[in-house]
What we know:
Blueprint: H1 2-35, H2 42-61, E1 66-67, E2 70-71, H3 73-100
Antiparallel strand pairs: 1-2
Helix pairs in contact: 1-2, 1-3, 2-3
Amino acid sequence: MFILSNLMTTIAGLLSLVINAYNFIIIIAAFMSWINPDPYNPIVRTVRAMTEPLFYRIRSRFPFVMINGFDLSPILVLVVLQLFNGVVVQSLHQYGVSLAH
Length: 101
């Protein structure tokens, strides 16, 4: 049973790491929208390619995230990711720890 416990806690740790990395990318994308960098820069293109499809879906499904030209979709995505991390990932981690005992 300890193998399943280790697997669950490892998966929870990896999910948390991926969520935290994506949170960082979202924050970078939000800052980039304020300074309007060169759109041909490979870093800018990569960050936008990683975030804009999700932001577009949020904007199309929830039109209230655009307030007077101010885009709140990154904030909504960050809130949803934190909820997922706090509920699902932490529950998975706690379940893995409880299997060890």
